[in-house]
Backbone:
């Protein structure tokens, strides 16, 4: 039986990407356009938290200039899946 490897994609709002101290083996991965258009950002933060692979994408882009109604959610999900995410968590400030 093959072993399942959990990889969590996180789409966060403002502030989630500001404290990277909990992320080990941090690296920025450049991403391209998807069949659904461009994702919110051209880079995704990748690394591990407590031994679990994570990929973090800012919902509003690195410049925080994308309004909630303009976020290309399908492109963001496609990007995380292409990077290997098995699960996706989405946070909000509300």
Residues:
């Amino acid at each position: 039986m093959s072993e399942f490897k959990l990889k969590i994609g996180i789409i966060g709002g403002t502030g989630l990407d500001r404290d990277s101290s909990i992320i080990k083996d941090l690296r920025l991965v450049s991403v391209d356009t998807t069949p659904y258009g461009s994702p919110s950002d051209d880079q995704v933060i990748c690394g591990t938290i407590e031994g679990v692979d994570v990929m973090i994408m800012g919902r509003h882009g690195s410049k925080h200039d994308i309004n909630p109604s303009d976020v290309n959610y399908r492109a963001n999900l496609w990007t995380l899946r292409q990077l290997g995410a098995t699960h996706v968590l989405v946070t909000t400030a509300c």
